[in-house]
Specification:
CATH class of chain B: Mainly Alpha
Structural class of chain B: mainly alpha
Number of strands of chain A: 2
Shape of chain B: globular
Number of domains of chain A: 1
Largest sheet of chain B: 2 strands, antiparallel
Helix content of chain B: over 70%
Number of helices of chain B: 11
Strand order of the largest sheet of chain B: 1-2
Oligomer: heterodimer
Number of helices of chain A: 14
């Protein structure tokens, strides 16, 4: 145990809050849009880190909770005129309840079998909602613009969504930190290192899975509220799921700061590649190449590499 | 729909099942030998389609000759993927190999979409049809089944009738022990990856004669391959072929009873159910 605790979490939250306030201070809408996406990715990557980084279960189809949270909240807002904040919570809770129901059986599976099962669940959900008429089937659902009147117009609604996304991201990071420092976190990491040790591993895994499903569901509710339209292909996009794994690995799995660094870096890089004409066509190729280099040579990710290279940093960067 | 539609649908599905099965054999071989779930499987299937397409439209090469080229290129390409992306991390946990093969997936899709765009392509070939009394079999389908069976038979001949096949089975069974017997496991792993890739590309080549396709088409067949492989038991080539036929039949027959858009839901539910209830597959585990 580290005796002297650096104020890691407060420092991290302050940095994130300052970054979040930046577009509001300079009144830059395009920067706000970019940061909205970045905080969403931080939420997704940090959540996946709880089940993958700490517990060692590669949840490939984790985006399913993003989609479910989005769909439930959207349905409530559209059909019952529920306020966004109420709908987001009311949407995230059943999404997490579903995580509990599917978590119990599929967390008995190990390694590759678990990863495949999570892909299967995401695809099953996507194709089922494709046929589910109350949710608009393949076409999806879209808001009447008057929905935003409650919040003082579309512009203010977007601002609200931004604020909520930042809060969700900060809550995810805080939860991730608290788990890592807790006895519960230790039992998760014990499961990661050796399946059969740990304190009531079966229960700990399910609890971790449910927690890691809650924040993506909130993020989904917020994203689709702002979007004003939701459809199965976007809500249950396996590529986005894999991207959040990639961000986690890029920054360093099992660390608190890793998914944040990874998400920021990945988004910045993608923006750079898309806007550089010479590289735009090879955007995917370069993303793949970068991923391969990280996977082959920087296995611990950036934060992990720093911690290994300069052990003194371990007290400061979690 | 009526029962009259049942027989032709079943035959259609059955024939497609052989082609699915061929691709799934490639995926399952790689998993069986080295415990790697190859996430570049889909784009590799698409590459097989485009090898045939380029040779056919560019040089007028017969698609079935193009298929042989695709199979050959598949071996080379698979060996290359193995040494570039897999060799270094062959003993790492699942996540690492999943991401490494996924990075290959991104690279192939990136290059293929910038070269070929995502406009649907087709290889225009017709071999007529045979049949009557409500059941018609397209020539291309019949040939595809024959080639898929030949491919599967060839894989069996290699695995069970040659020395290298014996080495592959030995490494799949117990790599450390195989190394103690003087088998160069690295070469065997690379070759297995090559054969697996070749099977996927061959299957893609066959699919190109049946349907239109884009560089992204591989993804659909990749997911089908996952379902099939789990049906037949991860790492079991016979299971993959049987699983392919089962899935093909299921796809064909179920459209008679339920709307087409529900068919994938059914597939995924079966997939999850088998993983949960019988993760070794319907035929049991055998590497």
């Amino acid at each position: 145990m580290i005796r002297v605790r650096a104020p890691f979490l407060p420092a991290l939250l302050v940095v994130l809050a300052v970054v979040a306030a930046l577009p509001l201070a300079v009144n830059n809408n395009s920067l706000r849009e970019e940061l909205f996406l970045m905080f969403m990715l931080i939420t997704l990557a940090s959540s996946i880190n709880i089940i993958m980084g700490y517990t060692g279960y590669v949840s490939f189809g984790h985006i399913v909770f993003f989609g479910l949270g989005g769909y439930f909240a959207f349905y409530l807002m559209q059909n019952f005129n529920a306020h966004f904040l109420v709908a987001a919570l009311a949407g995230a809770i059943p999404a997490s309840a579903i995580a509990l129901v599917i978590g119990v059986p599929i967390l008995r599976l190990r390694g590759a079998y678990f990863a495949l099962a999570t892909i299967g669940i995401n695809e099953a959900m996507r194709t089922a909602i494709n046929n589910f008429e109350p949710f608009g089937g393949a076409v999806g659902m879209f808001f009447n613009f008057s929905v935003y009147d409650t919040y003082g117009g579309a512009r203010n609604a977007a601002l609200l969504a931004y604020g909520v996304m930042v809060v969700v991201a900060l809550a995810t990071v805080t939860t991730s930190y608290l788990i890592r420092r807790s006895k519960f976190g230790l039992s998760l990491m014990a499961i990661r290192e050796d399946q059969d040790v740990g304190i009531d591993p079966a229960r700990a895994k399910v609890v971790a899975y449910v927690i890691s499903s809650f924040f993506p569901a909130l993020a989904g509710a917020t994203f689709f509220f702002k979007n004003g339209i939701i459809e199965p292909g976007v809500a249950f996009d396996l590529l986005r799921s894999i991207e959040s794994l990639v961000m986690c690995v890029l920054g360093g799995t099992g660390t608190v700061a890793g998914p944040i660094v990874g998400a920021a870096l990945y988004e910045w890089l993608r923006g750079f590649l898309i806007t550089t004409p010479a590289l735009a066509n090879f955007q995917l190729f370069l993303a793949g190449l970068l991923l391969l280099v990280v996977v082959l040579f920087v296995t611990a990710g950036l934060v992990g590499w720093l911690r290994n290279r300069y052990p003194v940093l371990r007290a400061y960067i979690q | 729909m009526s029962v009259d539609a049942l027989v032709p649908s079943a035959i259609d599905g059955l024939m497609l099942g052989f082609v699915y099965g061929l691709a799934a054999m490639g995926l399952t071989l790689i998993f069986g030998v080295m415990r790697v779930i190859n996430l570049s499987h889909g784009p590799v299937i698409a590459l097989g389609m485009f090898v045939v397409y380029v040779l056919f439209t560019g040089a007028g090469v017969n698609p079935y000759l193009g298929l042989i080229a695709a199979a050959g290129l598949g071996i080379l390409f698979g060996v290359a993927i193995y040494f570039v992306a897999v060799d270094r991390i062959i003993n790492a946990p699942e996540l690492t190999t999943l991401l490494a093969t996924y990075s290959v997936n991104l690279m192939i899709v990136g290059v293929a979409t910038s070269v070929f765009t995502t406009t649907p392509r087709a290889v225009d070939i017709s071999l007529g049809s045979v049949g009557g009394s409500g059941v018609t079999i397209l020539g291309t389908h019949a040939v595809a089944v024959a080639i898929a069976i030949a491919g599967a038979a060839l894989l069996y001949a290699i695995l069970f009738r040659t020395r290298i096949g014996k080495s592959i089975r030995a490494v799949a069974n117990n790599r450390a022990a195989a190394e103690l017997m003087g088998i160069d496991s690295r070469r065997v792993l690379a070759l297995s990856f090559g054969i697996g890739t070749s099977l996927a590309m061959t299957s893609g080549a066959l699919l190109s004669t049946l349907f239109s396709f884009t560089p992204l088409s591989g993804a659909t067949y990749e997911v089908k391959s996952f379902v099939i492989v789990v049906l037949g038991g991860l790492g079991n080539p016979t299971g993959a072929l049987v699983g392919g036929i089962v899935l093909g039949l299921l796809e064909g027959v179920s459209t008679v009873f339920i709307p087409v858009s529900w068919v994938p839901v059914l597939e995924y539910v079966i997939f999850i159910a088998i993983l949960l209830v019988r993760p070794t597959g319907l035929l049991g585990a055998r590497a």
